[in-house]
Design a protein that fits this description.
single chain; 170 residues; alpha+beta; four-stranded antiparallel beta sheet; two-stranded antiparallel sheet; 6 helices; globular
């Protein structure tokens, strides 16, 4: 994994977790030394990320990234294309969630930000061991998408809309 990709993954990890993450845990997760993580955190701080180093680990306070929730609808066969459109246009698919009439909101973290992550997710789903969350709501689902700017989110929204994946607002 390249340094920029690792740093993006570190940001996604810190944004996903609600509690501090020790540097040792992060270094193990990415198979690099603790010193590399310290350097990565320094680079991220210099890039505008408000990351605190506490005695319990790292915590992200704020991020310069923009975020938007998209309501989507498509078939299982179109999932790879949908995720690829988001990633190829500069977004990170933070999560997926559905609104179930009996259970309410059901969500799962995804943190898909590269073509490799898209491929791994699709392989996991197509292995037959799991099915996409959207299948319990007839293909309707939501993704929280994070990107470097609102302009990138607009580009992603336009790409999804061109393919017919944006669900109509009712």
């Amino acid at each position: 994994m390249k340094a920029n990709e690792r740093r993006k993954a570190i940001v996604n990890l810190l944004l996903t977790e609600k509690k501090p993450i020790p540097g040792g845990v992060i270094s193990e997760k990415f198979s690099v030394s603790r010193q590399i993580i310290v350097q990565d955190i320094s680079v991220l701080k210099a890039s505008g990320y408000d990351i605190l180093s506490t005695h319990l680990g790292y915590v992200i306070q704020t991020t310069p990234l923009s975020e938007r929730v998209f309501k989507l609808h498509h078939t299982t066969e179109q999932t790879e294309d949908e995720l690829s459109l988001i990633v190829e246009n500069g977004g990170t698919v933070v999560d997926v969630f559905v609104w179930h009439k009996a259970y309410g909101k059901i969500e799962a973290p995804l943190n898909i930000f590269s073509p490799l992550h898209v491929k791994q997710f699709i392989e996991a789903v197509r292995s037959g061991k799991s099915t996409e969350l959207m299948n319990i709501t007839g293909g309707y689902h939501y993704h929280t998408v994070r990107a470097d700017s609102e302009e990138i989110l607009d580009k992603i929204e336009n790409a999804l809309n061109e393919r017919g994946y944006i669900a109509p607002r009712i």
